[in-house]
Amino acid sequence: MLIIFFSLQAKAQSAKKLHFKAILVDTHNDVLSSSVLEGKDISHRLASGQSDLDRWKEGGLDVQFFSVWTDKIARNKGGFFEDANQEIDSLEIIALRNPFRMTLATNYKQVKKGIRQKKLVALIGVEGGHMIEDDLSKLDSLYNRGMRYMTLTWNNSTSWATSAMDEAQHQDSLTRKGLTHFGKQFVRRMNDLGIIVDLSHVGEQTFYDAIATTAKPVLLSHSSVWNICPVFRNVKDEQIKAVAENRGVICINFYSGFLDSNFAKKMDQLEGSEGKRIKDSLGENYDAAKLNEIWTKYFSERLQPYRPTISKLVDHIDYIVRLVGDDYVGIGSDFDGVSSLPTGMDDVTKYPLITEELKRRGYPNRSIKKILGGNVLRVMKANMK
Ligand SMILES: [Zn+2]
Questions:
Q1: Distance between Cα 47 and ligand 1 center (Å)
Q2: Which of 26, 107, 288, 318 is deepest in the core (most CB within 10 A)?
Q3: For the chain, how long is the longest CA-to-CA vector?
Q4: pLDDT tens figures, 159-196
Q5: What are 237-296's pLDDT values in tens digits?
Q6: CA distances for 134 relative to 22, 25, 137, 199, angstroms
Q7: In angstroms, what is the span from residue 213 Cα to ligand 1's centroid?
Q8: Ligand 1 centre from 223 Cα, in Å?
Q9: How far is the CA of 200 from the centre of ligand 1 (A)?
Q10: What pTM did the predictor assign?
């Protein structure tokens, strides 16, 4: 018994050692729109939320893509583009306040340098083509401000690309699907500039059109596997194979509703019955923030018993590895952008649990290093200048 105990301890120790030695890259975090814009300072350990500089260090994170995101309705009078610039301003301020702990990178050399200096390397990912407002010059402008990936759509379609939500749920109201001629121009321009084409959130037709257009490996910054959890924006086997052929990478989203079909089903049930009741109680012109607040509290309590395990999260990684090999999967947590995470995965200090589970399943160190960051670094290098 004692021998088993010591052997488990030794295994946990070696997983920990590997985790902190490996380069960990997370391609999606929403802390800018969820905390920073509300005035919270992530330089210090926060009592709420899922991320800050202290906790990233504790979780062994080396590289973070910060999601610049705004809803279908812009926050500022100036529109989506102004929203994007405001969020980038806020990220720059955090980096300026923490020059010894964090560095904002815009090219691959800077990424490597920041990792060597043991700083958190921050990069900008813009979530949703709506933020460039159909304007090629705004794409260039956000590139000049540091944008190094752009998710072609968020849940809302643009005039040039249809989203997964619209392709799957609002088919009747769509006049067309996929990328337009203009949309393809955006993709080519992104390739030329060195902006990674991010295909999370896009519809299947947009996905295949973009894969056929891009000359560089693509990223899916926060998407999980359809065959394990069939929700509208998870990726199907044929898509996973197409990403492998393109030498891109799919980074697994940690949201319970994208990982576990039982959780997703339960949530749908609650949304249908209770969601409508709560919405109705707020009246016709309800405040979206208020609804979100009630929703998060009410539903997270009720869904608590249905949260998946870390093992379920790793099943998604495992699935992609078994289908196409260990070169095409990574980590895209969506921390601070989701209302439920697997049990134990409460914040960014918990990344080592993934390494532990991969080790437990017999993954070789070489493979684990690719999954934690090596694969995304390869895609970054292939795209960025
Ligand atoms: Zn998202």
A1: 24
A2: 26
A3: 67
A4: 999 999 999 999 888 889 999 999 999 999 999 999 99
A5: 999 999 999 999 999 999 999 999 999 999 888 877 777 777 777 777 777 667 777 777
A6: 40, 30, 9, 18
A7: 23
A8: 8
A9: 7
A10: 0.94
